[in-house]
Amino acid sequence: MSLIRLQNISRLYQMGTETIHALRTISLEVQRGEYVAIMGPSGSGKSTLMNLLGCLDTCTSGTYELNGTNVSDLDDNELAEIRNREIGFVFQTFNLLPRANALRNVELPLIYSGKPSDERREIALQALSSVGLGDRIHHKPNEMSGGQRQRVAIARALVNSPSIILADEPTGNLDSKTGEEIMALLRALSEKGNTIFVVTHEEDIARRARRILRIRDGLIADDSANSAKPHSPAP
Amino acid sequence: MNYLTEIKEGLAIAWDAIRANKMRSILTTLGIIIGIVTVTSMATAIDALNRAFHDSISVLGADVLFVSQHNWVNRTFEEWIKDNKRAVITHQEAEAVEREMTEAQAVAPVVTTFQAVWYKDHRASRVQIIGATDQFLITSGFNIAQGRYLTSAEAEGGRPICVIGNDVATNLFHMDTPIGKRIKIGARRLEVIGVLEKRGSFLGTDSFDNEVIIPIQQFLVGYMRRPSFDIQVKVRDITHLDDAKEELRGLMRKIRHDKPGDPDDFSINQQEQFIETFNKVTGTIAMVGLLVTGMSLFVGGIGIMNIMFVSVAERTREIGVRKAIGAKRRTILLQFLIEAATICLLGGLAGLCITYLLTLIASTVFPYFPITMSVPVMILAILTSVVTGVSSGFAPAWRAARMNPVDALRSE
Question: 0.80 cut: is pTM over it?
Answer without folding.
Answer: no
